[in-house]
Hints:
Elements: H1 46-71, H2 75-103, H3 108-134, H4 138-161, H5 164-189, H6 194-216, H7 223-254, H8 259-280, H9 285-290, H10 294-325, H11 333-356, H12 363-378, H13 386-414
Helix pairs in contact: 1-2, 1-3, 1-7, 1-10, 2-3, 2-4, 2-10, 3-4, 4-5, 5-6, 7-8, 7-10, 8-10, 8-11, 8-13, 10-11, 11-12, 11-13, 12-13
Amino acid sequence: MPPSPDDDGGGEPDGAGPAQGPQQPFTVLSRMRARRRDEAHRVATPLELFFDLAFAAAVAQAGQQLVHALAGGHPGHGVGGYLLVFFAIWWAWVNFTWFASAYDTDDVPYRLATLLQITGVLVLAAGVPRAFSDANYTVSVAGYLIMRVALTLQWLRAARGETGAARKAALTYAAGLVVVQACWVLLLALPGNAWEYGVGPLILAELAVPAVAERVRETPWHPGHIADRYGGFTIIVLGESISAATVAVQSALDKKTDLTELLPIAFGGLVIVFAAFWIYFATPIETYIGSGSEWRVFGWGYGHYLIFGSAAAIGAGLEVATEQVTAESHISALAAALAVTVPTALYALAVWLVHVRPFKHDAWQQLVFPASALLVLIASFAGHWAVPLAGLAAAAGLAVAIALAAREQRRTMEA
């Protein structure tokens, strides 16, 4: 995945076509060749943003089912189902995003294939409730199959436009997608507990496909484009958290809930989401991933499963906390608080580990976010004040991080 000199791969060094900008003209049909890494101002296209909206619907479905499970007192079932369903959502998004960064031609076949993938996302989202309630993954796997077929056709088209090692890498991607997807369909058809035993190995197989294909030849993804795409999806999942919390507060107001109990949750939730946004977008990640090793890039890209998943779960937790206050759920105040504080702490740790840690140069800077995550978890035991105290802990950690960064900047300027 990281940039490398062109060895015996097809096309020109570092990508084949001309240096295209973010507004490359739409064409009816073109030869699919790798785009250049040196394109200026490469950002998400309107089609990619439209694609992300479909995933927002799937994320919302997964979050809503997590709310039902947690509010119903079934945390094990809810968290397990959420982790599996969110992996399918996240992994489909990741596959499309990295392919598009290298081979987006924006012509008719490309748009049609992308729209087909959007259709698959919506089918997957429609199957989320059945996956949670009945462990019935038929509809979700069908949606996943639609997406994988479309992406396989994209890789085959890329292989047709390339030569040498670049062609071989594209064919490796296509073959890996076909084999793993066939195994998912087979696993679904097997009786008994085959699904429970087969899910783990197939997830590892999914993650292994890019690792194997990129060893053949690194695809020419664009660091600025990838940073923009991941940042955009972070905003989407945080937006889903705000939306879920808003719906929960509105429902509580309709039931004439005591504002002295409701407002602290609303305040704490907003502070948590604001802090989550701030800490993610405080680092120049484009330079970090663009100049890193292969394992650095894989660690950063794969580590976002925890970032995205925990960010989306914060909204579900806020909804659970609101339902506990309105007596719509019969779980304890501690359980409701943990539904918020656990994903908040996990988000802080994941962002620190994957996204922030490489830019921190002393022990105090390294300790800020882990300490903030610990304080957030401790706030769980504060009863109905758990959420606002967790928000204050997250904000305090952010404030300390900003102060330490400012101190380091002054030292650098004085040196």
